[in-house]
Recover the amino acids of this structure.
């Protein structure tokens, strides 16, 4: 039976607006509601559906971060993951480092498929899945909107700028999720209770003995330039008048 | 002296209009030379097109059967090998093509990637958006390593035509994996301009209420010669297909004129349009956040306003 590894990142909740700290040293995230990165939730949902329809045996949720990330793993277990793995380390992690750690996890766990969100909604990098696939020497199917498994391969439909592209990848492979792959389930209370008894293993990243990956140095954050609020017009005639004044329409 | 290699996106027939924008970003580094890599099959015509962009020194044409379709698994190793031939920077577009390919190449090169460059602040120093555009982060790429990055197309003007770069065929001795197979591309049938390069875009949101009602926007767009876009809500509701989504996780666009019709203006959508020239918002809710950033707003029922607007434009 196939084994699926799903990565979950702890991020500020999708509905919370984050602002730059006054001194520009970072984002003011203290005390904000934290959740699983929404694209990762879609990744987990897809893995669970694979297991439920008999396409997969075990679903393992993994995250990298401090102890506080256990919260997101427990949520993943409540959603239905069979077990969880925390690769413990402190500080901000960049995608290349994340990919290096996940490679070690992949070597240990030997999954048939790694499903990841296409991007995290904090750093918006959209890199880690592709980087893991490169380091692992395995196929990548990014921005997936449909996944069909067939023996040792997967047919993945990808949301690309031009439309919908389909590719076939041999397993093991890395798949990254787009928004319309599925709609993640809600967690029921009994599942939260059950999740407490599921195994959550903690792995020290230091003990993996990875060489430090080169990284980008953050120099400072600033608020984006704001567009000025314009004018409200009364009716269509006034709107067309304004557009003609600016030479935007005939 | 830095030397930039730009990866050309194309569809097998023509160069993607974004390539000239990535060239613009690359020239912002003030390099000693800027080359363009075209990976394709029978791609000589595309290579000549790239050579016509002002500022391009050479176009390197990697013509081989495996490049018939853009598969990152096959193209990243070629790109990584080529980039190591004396380049300081490897740049691609922040499109689904570039987002798929560039991080794979970066990892093969063992370097981090700078995603979505908005501005160049130095040879290795760039600004990029984070948190759905709620902040702009300045980063410095590590010294003495190749810089791999994607350019946020909406932040860059296209470099003009008029270049006279040389085209060279390059044969790389790189073994390519065969674990990934391209199957098909389904493209919607449309005669309308491309969303990412159109100068006028008409977008609709959930308030349109149905796929059928989007025909109101198609009528207006066709009159204006505009592309049609949509908010995530409208795509999720199934009114239109995915490639029409504008916003943080869809397309980031910068048309001269943008109509947001029945779109409330979630931050994720606004991120996708903040570089537009003039934003027109039509919405029945006067409190909708879209009015905070619109240049011209009209509060009212889109189902009466849009036909009226089309009629008014026809009067000219």
């Amino acid at each position: 039976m196939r084994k699926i590894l799903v990565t979950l990142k702890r991020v500020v909740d999708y509905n919370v607006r984050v602002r730059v700290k006054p001194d520009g040293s970072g984002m003011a995230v203290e005390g904000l509601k934290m959740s699983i990165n929404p694209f990762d939730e879609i990744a987990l949902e897809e893995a669970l559906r694979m297991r439920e329809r008999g396409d997969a045996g075990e679903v393992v949720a993994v995250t990298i971060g401090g102890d506080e990330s256990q919260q997101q793993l427990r949520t993943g277990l409540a959603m239905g993951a069979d077990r969880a793995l925390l690769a413990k380390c402190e500080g901000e992690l960049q995608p290349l480092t994340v990919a290096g750690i996940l490679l070690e996890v992949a070597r240990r766990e030997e999954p048939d498929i790694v499903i990841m969100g296409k991007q995290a909604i904090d750093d918006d990098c959209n890199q880690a899945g592709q980087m893991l696939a490169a380091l692992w020497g395995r196929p990548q199917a990014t921005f997936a909107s449909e996944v069909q498994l067939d023996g040792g391969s997967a047919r993945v439909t990808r949301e690309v700028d031009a439309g919908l592209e389909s590719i076939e990848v041999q397993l093991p492979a890395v798949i990254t999720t787009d928004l319309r792959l599925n709609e993640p389930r809600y967690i029921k209370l009994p599942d939260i209770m059950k999740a407490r008894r599921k195994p959550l293993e903690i792995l020290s990243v230091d003990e993996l003995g990875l060489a430090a990956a080169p990284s980008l140095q953050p120099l400072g954050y600033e608020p984006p330039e704001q567009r000025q609020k314009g004018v409200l017009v009364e009716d269509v005639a006034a709107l067309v008048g304004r557009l003609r004044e600016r030479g935007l329409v005939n | 002296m830095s030397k930039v290699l730009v990866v050309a996106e194309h569809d097998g027939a023509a160069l993607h209009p974004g390539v000239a924008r990535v060239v613009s970003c690359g020239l912002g580094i003030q390099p000693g030379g800027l080359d363009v890599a075209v990976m394709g099959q029978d791609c000589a015509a595309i290579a000549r097109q790239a050579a016509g962009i002002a500022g391009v020194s050479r176009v390197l044409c990697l013509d081989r059967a495996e490049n018939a379709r853009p598969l990152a698994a096959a193209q990243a190793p070629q790109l990584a090998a080529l980039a190591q031939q004396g380049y300081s920077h490897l740049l691609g577009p922040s499109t689904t093509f570039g987002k798929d390919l560039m991080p794979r190449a970066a990892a093969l090169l063992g370097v981090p990637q700078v995603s979505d460059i908005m501005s160049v602040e130095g040879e290795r120093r760039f600004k990029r958006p984070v948190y759905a555009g709620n902040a702009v982060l300045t980063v410095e790429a590590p010294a003495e390593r190749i810089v791999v990055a994607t350019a946020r197309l909406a932040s860059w003007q296209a470099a003009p035509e008029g270049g006279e770069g040389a085209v060279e065929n390059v044969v790389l001795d790189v073994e390519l994996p065969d674990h990934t197979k391209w199957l098909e591309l389904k493209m919607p049938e449309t005669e309308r301009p491309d969303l990412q390069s159109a100068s006028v875009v008409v977008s609709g949101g959930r308030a349109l209420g149905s796929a059928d009602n989007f025909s109101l926007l198609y009528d207006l767009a066709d009159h204006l010669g505009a592309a049609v876009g949509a908010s995530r809500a409208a795509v999720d509701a199934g009114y239109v297909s995915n490639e029409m989504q504008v916003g943080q996780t869809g397309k980031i666009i910068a048309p001269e004129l943008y109509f947001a019709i029945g779109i409330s203006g979630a931050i994720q959508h606004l991120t996708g349009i903040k570089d537009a020239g003039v934003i027109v918002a039509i919405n029945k809710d006067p409190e909708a956040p879209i009015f905070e950033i619109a240049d011209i707003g009209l509060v009212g029922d889109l189902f009466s306003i849009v036909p009226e607007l089309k009629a008014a434009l026809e009067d000219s």
Remarks:
- Chain B touches chain A through 88 residues (CB under 8 Å).
- The first helix of chain B runs from residue 18 to 27.
- The mean pLDDT of chain B is 95.
- Residues 3-169 of chain B form a domain with the Rossmann fold fold (CATH 3.40.50.620).
